[in-house]
Amino acid sequence: MTISMTPAAQEHVRNHLASRGKGEGIRVGVKASGCSGLSYVLDYVDEADPGDTVIQCGDVKLFVDPECMTYLDGSELDFVKDGLNQGLQFNNPNVVDECGCGESFHV
């Protein structure tokens, strides 16, 4: 089971960690939310949790709770710019359906 990051996503995370001045990487996960059932969660990691799965993507570490790996396995994290909007985006092959606004998904 794995998750990958594009070079653009790695650079984005690396720059944010540098401007923050601390952090080992980012935590990726899912939580129950939205109209379709699940939504993605991203947060900085200053210290790993004992049960974390750690995935090295270039020089950026992703920390994942093993329970979330089922939903995220095979996903790619990308940094996307669309007009004035920009941000990290999950390309998740496990998604069966998404809500109309794109904020939540179902596997």
Tell me what you see in this structure.
With 107 residues, the protein is of the alpha/beta class. The protein has a single domain (4-94), classed as Sandwich (Hypothetical Protein Aq_1857, Chain: A). 20% of the residues lie in helices and 45% in strands. The chain has helices spanning 7-20, 66-72; strands at 4-5, 25-33, 37-45, 53-57, 60-64, 76-82, 85-91, 97-98, 105-106. The strands form three sheets. It has a four-stranded mixed sheet with strand order 3-2-5-4. The longest helix is centred in the N-terminal third of the chain and has 14 residues, at 7-20. It is globular and about 35 Å long. The mean pLDDT is 86.
Summarize the structure.
The protein has helices at 7-20, 66-72, and strands spanning 4-5, 25-33, 37-45, 53-57, 60-64, 76-82, 85-91, 97-98, 105-106.
What's the SSE blueprint?
Layout: E1 4-5, H1 7-20, E2 25-33, E3 37-45, E4 53-57, E5 60-64, H2 66-72, E6 76-82, E7 85-91, E8 97-98, E9 105-106
Parallel strand pairs: 1-6, 2-5
Antiparallel strand pairs: 2-3, 4-5, 6-7, 8-9
What are the main properties of this structure?
107 residues; alpha/beta; Hypothetical Protein Aq_1857, Chain: A; 4-stranded mixed sheet; 3-stranded mixed sheet; 2 helices; globular
Percent of residues in beta strands: 35-45%
As residue ranges, the low-confidence spans are none
Sheet of most strands = 4 strands, mixed
Number of helices: 2
CATH top level label: Mainly Beta
Q: Output the radius of gyration.
A: 14 Å
What structural class should be given to the helix and strand makeup? alpha/beta
Which sequence of SSEs, written as H and E, runs from N to C? EHEEEEHEEEE
Number of strands: 9
Shape descriptor reads: globular
CATH homologous superfamily classification: HesB-like domain
Helical proportion, percent range = 10-25%
User: Strands across the major sheet, in which order?
Assistant: 3-2-5-4
Mean pLDDT: 86
Number of domains: 1
Instruction: From the 3D structure, determine the CATH topology.
Output: Hypothetical Protein Aq_1857, Chain: A
What would you say the CATH architecture is? Sandwich
